[in-house]
Recover the amino acids of this structure.
């Protein structure tokens, strides 16, 4: 289930389950979004991105859904594996200016074998 | 092809001191961005350097400064350290001022502790 831990929201799943990680973004003018995966002791790693003219984009085992009406982004991971255990961040970008990213707080995904 | 390397990996400093963190960009990349990541939080953009010029800055005070060298490596300098500066400092390299997406490569960071 999903819970709010001391620092990060945490999602615990069993290996083979599908995982859904959610992100509420802050700026209705944001037009580009990225999901990153950060494993312990490493920097964030690009997973998938989506522009605001789309509402769904699929990659290998991952799907990002964008709902601009409620400013909500989700990352779906199919057949979750222990190697998917990490913290997942969404980042939003607003067009115009210097295109500086704003990262969300992150969700810790724990996959149990 | 080497990735992004940061040094040192860990550092302990005393409040009021100054610190310099270093980043070697990925081969072929001409842009370096720096982030501060507090425990349990997402990275916060500090600034970006593109071809040795500052190319964008987040909401950080002037005591956070940087440099980019002709080989595109970069330094982050923080003066008058405060306890709240304790964080993981991440460097990311890219091409031509990009600030995210495929090809935007992060290093593993420098863990700074201010006591």
């Amino acid at each position: 289930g999903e819970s709010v831990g001391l620092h990060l929201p945490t999602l615990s799943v069993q290996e083979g389950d599908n995982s859904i990680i959610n992100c509420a973004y802050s700026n209705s003018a944001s037009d580009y979004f990225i999901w990153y995966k950060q494993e312990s002791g490493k920097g964030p790693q690009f997973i998938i991105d989506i522009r605001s003219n789309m509402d769904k984009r699929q990659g290998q085992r991952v799907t990002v859904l964008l709902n601009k009406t409620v400013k909500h982004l989700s990352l779906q991971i199919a057949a979750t594996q222990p190697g998917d255990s990490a913290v997942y961040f969404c980042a939003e970008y607003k067009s115009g200016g210097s295109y500086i990213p704003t990262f969300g707080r992150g969700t810790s995904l724990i996959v149990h074998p | 092809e080497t990735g992004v390397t940061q040094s040192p990996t860990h550092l302990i400093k005393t409040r009021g001191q100054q610190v310099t963190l270093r980043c070697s960009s990925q081969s072929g990349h001409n842009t370096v961005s720096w982030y501060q990541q507090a425990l349990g939080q997402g990275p916060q953009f500090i600034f970006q350097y593109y071809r040795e010029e500052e190319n964008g800055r987040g909401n950080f005070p002037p005591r956070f400064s940087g440099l980019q060298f002709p080989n595109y490596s970069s330094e982050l300098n923080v003066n008058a350290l405060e306890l709240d500066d304790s964080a993981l400092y991440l460097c990311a390299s890219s091409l031509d001022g990009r600030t995210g997406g495929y090809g935007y490569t992060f290093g593993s960071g420098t863990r700074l502790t201010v006591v």
Summary: The first strand of chain A starts at residue 2 and ends at 4. Chain A has no helices and eleven strands. The radius of gyration of chain A is 14 Å.
